[in-house]
Amino acid sequence: MMTSISQDSITVGFSKESILDTVGAGKFLNLSPATLEKYRQRNSYIKGPRFMRFGNHKIFYKIADLQEWLKERLVERD
């Protein structure tokens, strides 16, 4: 059973140690899988969230790493 997630309900149905594939991480961050793929490249001007690679094509993201990446992008206003 797939649980829908959003930034407003970051850990509903998941622990911080849960992992998502690129499609799930994209939904979580409201980014396309293609954007996340670009962010994984070493020469990308935007450093994407940390990820795990299994084999040549299996990419996964920890919920905690996605949350941390989002927090790093918060902008404080005066």
Cα gyration radius (Å): 13 Å
Structural class: alpha+beta
List low-pLDDT spans.
Answer: 1-11
The separation of the N and C termini measures 43 Å
Biggest β-sheet: strands ordered side by side in the sheet: 1-3-2
The shape, in one word, is globular
What's the β-strand tally? 3
Q: Look at the structure and give the mean pLDDT.
A: 83
Secondary structure: helix percent: 25-40%
Strand content: 5-15%
SSE order, as H and E?
EHHEEH
Q: How can the largest sheet be summarized?
A: 3 strands, antiparallel
Total DSSP helices? 3
In short:
The chain has 78 residues and is α+β, with helices and mostly antiparallel strands.
Description:
With 78 residues, this protein is an alpha+beta fold. It has a domain at 19-72. It has 3 helices and 3 strands. A 3-stranded antiparallel sheet has the order 1-3-2. Strand 2 and strand 3 form a beta hairpin. Helix 1 packs across helix 2 (33-40). The longest helix is centred in the C-terminal third of the chain and has 10 residues, at 63-72. The protein is globular.
